[in-house]
Amino acid sequence: MENFITADKDVLTIPGYNTLTDSEKELLGKYSNKVTYKGGDVIIKQDTRTSHIMYIKNGLVKVFKEGRNDKVINLKIALPGSYIGLLSVFGDELYQYNASSIQNTEMIFIDISVFREIINHNGAFAAHLLKMISEEGLFMLDKLMNLYHKQLSGRIADVLLFFSEKIFNSPGFELPLTRRELAEFAGTTKESFIRTLTEFRNDNIIKLERKRVDIISMDILKTLSRLG
Question: Which of 10, 16, 107, 203 is deepest in the core (most CB within 10 A)?
Answer without folding.
Answer: 107
